[in-house]
Amino acid sequence: MGTGPAQTPSSTRAGPEPSPAPPGPGDTGDSDLTQEGSGPASIRGGGEKVIRAGMGDSPGRGAPQRRHRAQPGRAGKYEPRPEGPTSMGSLAQREDLQDDEDKNSAFTWEVQANNRAYNAQFKEKVFLCWRRKKYKTNVIRTAKYNFFSFLPLNLYEQLHRVSNLYFLLIIILQSIPDISTLPWFSLGAPMVCLLFIRATRDLVDDIGRHKSDRAINNRPCQILMGKSFKRKKWQNLCVGDVVCLHKDNIVPADMLLLASTEPSSLCYVETVDIDGETNLKFRQALMVTHKELTSVKKMASFQGTVTCEAPNSRMHHFVGCLEWNDKKYSLDIGNLLLRGCRIRNTDTCYGMVIYAGFDTKIMKNCGKIHLKRTKLDLLMNKLVVVVFISVVLICLVLAFSFGFSVREFKDQHYYLSGLHGSSVAAESFFIFWGFLILLSVTIPMSMFILSEFIYLGNSVFINWDVQMYYQPQDVPAKARSTSLNDHLGQVEYIFSDKTGTLTQNILTFNKCCINGRVYGPDSEARTRPKENPYLWNKFADGKLLFCNAALLHLVRSNRDTAVREFWRLLAICHTVMVRESRRECPDQLLYQAASPDEGALVTAARNFGYVFLSRTQDTITIVELGEERVYQVLAIMDFNSMRKRMSVLVRKPEGTICLYTKGADTVIFERLHSRGATEFATEAALAAFAQETLRTLCLAYREVAEDIYDDWQQRHQEASLLLQNRAQALQQLLGATAIEDRLQDGVPETIKCLKKSNIKIWVLTGDKQETAVNVGFACELLSENMLILEEKEISRILETYWESNNNFLTKKSLSQVKLALVINGDFLDKLLVSLRKEPRALVQNVNVDEAWQEPGQSRRDFLYARRLSLLCRRFGLPLAAPTAEDPAEDSGARRRSEVLQERAFVDLASNCQAVICCRVTPKQKALIVALVKKYHQVVTLAIGDGANDVNMIKTADVGVGLAGQEGMQAVQNSDFVLGQFCFLQRLLLVHGRWSYVRICKFLRYFFYKTMASMMVQVWFACYNGFTAQPLYEGWFLALFNLLYSTLPVLYIGLFEQDISAEQSLEQPELYLAGQKDELFNYWVFVQAVAHGMATSLVNFFMTLWISHDTAGPASFSDHQSFAVVVALSGLLSITMEVILIIKYWTVLCVVTILLSLGFYAIMTTITQSFWLFRVSPKTFPFLYADLSVLSSPSILLVVLLSASINTFPVLALRVIFPALKKLLTKEEKVEEGPSEDIFAVEPLPHLYRESRARRSSYAFSHREGYADLITQGTILRRGPGVSSDIASESIEPSDEVASSSSKESHW
């Protein structure tokens, strides 16, 4: 069989882990492509795949078909093969979707190896005649600014704030001499200061991004230049370059794997930075490049051309073809090394760059940097507009009043008209602008400057909190953004990743049940025993925390057959590999597992004395309590989504044949030959393990008679079914294992506390549904009394939602139910309109074995149908699904219905206690967050620790990055950094709530004191002929917000606490105030303005009426004395107000108040001194004004009277009103919460998910291991005596034979 173009198969497999690759060097033939008509080297029956060890496979056989041959032409299309069960939708929907996908699947990307000139000739149109290079460089720039764009772009962003535009307008007006009442620099200097502070903050943040980009772009790599590999930087990479990578290197771009030093050019990668999974995945080069590109010289002459799909965000899919030497070879995701992966267990590999820089899949999923604004910031923009409009109206009224008074004055004093040459209208026009400048202080610049310091201070407090310091990894909490602190106190939705965020991504052997007896960790072993109990075993790794003295005694005594077979099964029945480089040091074994669960089981067996030592293509070597035993492997039947179990058929050294099986309890128990006390005890143990949210597996074995095996072997050669109706039962149930997917410390308690704070938590993960649900129960996000809705039920509810006048979700029946949603990415892709704008995945999850059913499936289908019927009856849904839409229906109407359905889904999910989205891509995570923000206008928080969470973190209002195992991408793109998920509780309920309370009090008090001090200018205008003359001394206006009233309000913004941190955590219900915007809103703003105006009225008119018709030394009816009395009354009034509202009294608080009053005394003494008056009488006109006023006791009484009138009524209201409110609350009947039972009237037990369904989440979610690679020899170097000449072919069973079997094999 010569190397040639592959035949076109009927399907392609795509996914995070590629199908097993073609055979190794020892196999015959030289084509790496699957041939049409050549099936796997296995026996198929009832939907299961059996791979017989020891039998080499012909080229293209031995693995499910996963590659196509390219169609003629450069832009061929591939026909994708579905991979998993569909979640919703009809066949017509799938056909429509396929049409859309075909449009997106055209191959428009062409890259030639080692030919930069050829690749550089491709251009793309940008605008009109402007064209640029089609292929991007490998330079990454995530920073917002550069040297030239910083100043204009930052100014543009800052002028998006309405307040800055307002201040800029006032500064321009102040610079006009004819209308200016204050010098331009009085507002210009603070404006420059404010812009400088914000620009500095943005610059510091962006410098951090530049440093990160520079570090990434300058990473070293080896690029083929000429005829040798030269050390270059990542930024020097271009598409088409051939790159050499070594063990532990990070892949710099999306590359086609050409060859590696491993057998069959396998390459193992760790994708923890992409999807958070720590288990190794393998990628494999085409066999033609594996065999041909064996030297640097041959790689330098390699001129292959790759034609593939354009860059996209589909992380787990790739379709293309390699054209080389006039032949085409199909490519899929299994041939691609993605940027961000890390090379593991592979000494050297070579790749050709396909996508570089921002064209790589991981960068396509990163999203853009969003300008994040808090709700209070957006509200302030609106309030600035409201205040500005109000000031303009007041100025218009005052200007018109001035016009009327001037006209009347001129009529009475005609002889003065010669001094005023301008008209009344012109004077009124100038007076309008004069008043506008005078009253511009109603929006104080100092408030915005102080708020920047307050935000900065609260961020520093987060950084200094030692209770959020994670000592094991030396990670303190860090606020990377200083402008979002108050948003932490208003969060309503948390979107969390699972792996590495809720869990530690560490799986440990926790418990086991052997022969009906449960063995858990001893009490002292729950921490760590003083002495290692496994010292007797030289192979023990010393890391196993599980220890049970009784079980250890049984193992070492070697008398109990069940115990011996239990551990033997764990050491044999797996697809774990041992690192070759460690074979010379057998006591330092390093296992390489397809999943962390399997690695935990094999490691547990190793510590208990049953050590998996090595394997060849047809043998496995075990050390059992010090004795080395070699088992001949006759067949390996790996996990898959339908079998839910794994079996290994081995011949023992004694010659007997034994079948070892591990899998889901629902599968194993159905195959037991009988039920006894052991089986019932094991089932009870499984139920107990499930309550503890442990991941379980059942273990069983059977001794196979020689005649049965001979008969099976003959049937295998005849392509019949495996043990057809002969071995219908497993002989003995050995027991069960319980693996703990360890949560991070304090996760359940944190989630429970956050739920009490009315915060909804959604888990968005790329993991499988069963695993995610199991973790949901473990962290108490889900509970047994929740009704978990799945896709068919959700679809039925959504179809009914809009037919019930949009009020279905508010029905009383729904409010009595604790709901939870569990959905996957495919369901979202078909349901949500926003996701349909994204390119569709070319592979739909439809399993080819879907038609086959497990034993007992019919009963489960019946129970599900009954459950759906009860659900429809309880909620009033129609039992029959709504009829399909008319194809001729208007597309616009269909589009509107889709938008309504999208809104219905968000409403339904928002009414749920928990939502878990599984198998979602990074872009889908971001779109889900955007949907909630779009329809509910709530504050969202996203938390994650990997590169796959970056887009979600950027999209949410607040992004939190965990410094974990998955690199620093999430941290570098986050607003806040934490070491553990449990610190989120303190970040939100303590720091977030405090920040919100502080900034709200700060804003309310600042508006109050501004109105209280500045509205007197309006009242004074009524008595000075509306001439825009200032009442206060100029220095009082300048220093009022700078020294006289700044320190107390700054103390409020930085240190105010209504309750302590411990009380905040004990009373999470108090967090609702921030979610409901109770502490600062339009009504609070109106109250502050009204309170300030009332204070100004009292201060002005009380002083005016008392000073009326007074004379003599005690009189203060002159302008300067009057201004001093009003100013002093206002200062004391606002000081008393700050004393009333502060709840956290410290020595610092007293000092700030005393300093404010002291500054007033000191500065007025200086500015009203005689020597300054002599220097500049116009600048310092108030000579000894305060001294003369304060020397009169009667005037002091006026000041005290004004302050008392302003204080006592407010104090009375604040004491009486809460008391009345508390009294009314006690009299009201306390409404009862939702019942713990889902349905109080008519209990429907079948609406609950059985706990058994999640007992075997590991078996249901387990991916296929390395069985194909092991049995084909692809992953192994051939052992002695194994020749490629004895490779045999298997014949695919005919349809007639397949249909004749009524039962599935128990293997």
TrEMBL record:
MF terms (GO), sorted A to Z: ATP binding; ATP hydrolysis activity; ATPase-coupled intramembrane lipid transporter activity; magnesium ion binding
Entry keyword set: ATP-binding, Lipid transport, Magnesium, Membrane, Metal-binding, Nucleotide-binding, Translocase, Transmembrane, Transmembrane helix, Transport
Gene3D superfamilies, alphabetized: Calcium-transporting ATPase, cytoplasmic domain N (3.40.1110.10), Calcium-transporting ATPase, cytoplasmic transduction domain A (2.70.150.10), HAD superfamily/HAD-like (3.40.50.1000)
Compositionally biased spans, kind Polar residues: 1-13
Domain P-type ATPase N-terminal: from-to ranges: 111-186
CC annotations in GO: acrosomal vesicle; plasma membrane; trans-Golgi network
GO biological process, one term: establishment of localization in cell
Protein name, UniProt field: Phospholipid-transporting ATPase
EC number: 7.6.2.1
Source superkingdom: Eukaryota
Topology of this chain in the membrane: Multi-pass membrane protein
Gene designation: ATP8B3
Positions annotated as active site in the UniProt record: 497
